[in-house]
C-alpha cells in the first residue's frame, strides 16, 4: 500500500509544518503540506493535524494522527462510521510536563512567582519568615497516574515529598505511597499541600475538581492543572481563590483557550498562568516524527497503529 500523508496547517500551533515534513523525508510515505480544508481529489491516506475540521470526513482518509494527547473535539463515532482510524500523541509528554509541574511547585514553595512581579518596579521585598517552605517533607496528591502522573510522582518523590495519587485501578504505582479510587477524591485532596491534576478529559472527569473538591482542600493548599481545562470547574476555582479557601493555583489549561483577557485569573498574584505550554520542548517535533513514521509503516503493512484511539 502506497501512503500519501498530509500535514495540516494547524500543526503550526506547535512547530512549523514544513519542519515535520522534512523530518519525515525517510518515512514510507509521500509527505505534503495541505490546505486548511481537505479535498478528496488530493488522495491523502493519512493526515497529521493539531485540530479538527469537518472536511476531514469526506477526504478519503484512512488515518488521522493528532500531534497532542487530547482529542476531545474529534467526533469519534463519526470517524468510526467513516472508517477513519484516529491516533494521538499520548506518552511523549511525560518528562516535559513533569518538569513543568516541579517548576510550579518550586515557585509556590520558594515564593519565586512573587519576586518576578516585583522586578518591573525594582522592589526589594524579602519574604516574611513564614512565607516560604521547602518541598522536602511536603505532600502532593497526583490525580491521574498515567504517563504524566507517574512522571510527576517520580520527581516529587525524588524531592522528598510524600506522594499520594488517584487512579481507577488499585494496581501499585512506583513512588506513590497511598492510592485512592476516584470515588475517594475528597479524602485524597483533603490533607495535602499540593493537588496536581493529570487526568485525560472524559465524560467521567469533566469538572471532576469542582466546588466540593476545592472546599475539601486545605486553605494553604495549591492546585496545579496540567490535564485539560474542563477537568476543573473554573468558576468554582475563581471563587475558591477569591475567598482564600485555597492558597493558589498553577494553570496550564483552561475552559477557553487562549484565556480571555477579562478573566479574573490574570489579576491574581497567587495564580501562575502558562499558555498550554507544559509539554513544550525543542524535541517535540522529533517525537511526533517518530510516532508518525512508525504508524506510516504500520498503515502500509496493514498492522494496528500505535496510540490508536478509534
UniProtKB/TrEMBL annotation:
Q: Which domain of life is it from?
A: Archaea
- Any one GO molecular function term: oxidoreductase activity, acting on the CH-OH group of donors, NAD or NADP as acceptor
The D-isomer specific 2-hydroxyacid dehydrogenase catalytic domain covers 57-309
Q: Which InterPro entries match?
A: D-isomer_2_OHA_DH_cat_dom, D-isomer_DH_CS, D-isomer_DH_NAD-bd, Dhydh_Halo, NAD(P)-bd_dom_sf
Residue ranges constituting the D-isomer specific 2-hydroxyacid dehydrogenase NAD-binding domain according to the UniProt record: 103-278
**The keyword Translocase belongs to this UniProt entry's keyword annotation:** no
Q: Does the keyword Oxidoreductase apply?
A: yes
Q: What keywords appear on the UniProt entry?
A: NAD, Oxidoreductase
Similarity comment: family membership: Belongs to the D-isomer specific 2-hydroxyacid dehydrogenase family.
Protein name (database record): Phosphoglycerate dehydrogenase-like oxidoreductase
Q: What organism is listed for this UniProt entry? A: Halogeometricum borinquense (strain ATCC 700274 / DSM 11551 / JCM 10706 / KCTC 4070 / PR3)
